[in-house]
């Protein structure tokens, strides 16, 4: 069975991001990438996944490019306790999947404002214009898997 090129490139990118954090480059790469540690839903082993994120009013939001099929998302459904490494901070948190399309659309609007080129390209991958309307964002939101992560007990080092 041949592994698609896109999948192989994603795995290489994930290794590079983990190595950059390990090399002390978290403050640089952490502007758009965090490391999320979940517990494997079957094995219980720690799983570290680099993800793009947005921090809005002290809450970290991450979205899944693979929707609800992403392993990290499925792990959170089993065990919502996570660890987050972002820039030079590390904290334990509780992750909660968002189900409200309006809140997910708010997250997408924030991403579009902060990263118009990158997120605009993602919108085009979903066959939307680079600057979609609010109703288009809400339609897209119904298909996405987004998680909100809050630090536990103000734990935010």
Mean pLDDT: 87
Strand content: 25-35%
- Looking at the structure, the CATH topology is Pnp Oxidase, Chain A
Our count of helices gives: 6
CATH class: Mainly Beta
Strand-pairing-aware structural class: alpha+beta
Instruction: Report the helical percentage.
Output: 25-40%
Regions with little confidence, pLDDT below 50 for 5+ residues = none
> How many β-strands, per DSSP?
6
Order of helices and strands: HHEEEHEEHHHE
N-C termini distance: 44 Å
Query: What's the arrangement of strands in the largest beta sheet?
Result: 1-2-3-6-5-4
CATH superfamily membership, which one? Electron Transport, Fmn-binding Protein, Chain A
Into how many domains do the coordinates divide?
1
Question: What is the CATH architecture descriptor?
Answer: Roll
Radius of gyration over C-alpha positions, nearest whole angstrom: 16 Å
Describe the protein's architecture and organization.
The protein is α+β, with helices and mostly antiparallel strands and 157 residues long. It has helices spanning 5-22, 26-29, 71-78, 101-114, 116-125, 134-141; strands spanning 33-39, 46-56, 59-64, 81-86, 89-98, 145-151. It has a six-stranded antiparallel barrel with strand order 1-2-3-6-5-4. Strand 4 (81-86) and strand 5 form a beta hairpin. The longest helix has 18 residues, at 5-22. The chain is globular, with a radius of gyration of 16 Å. The mean pLDDT is 87.
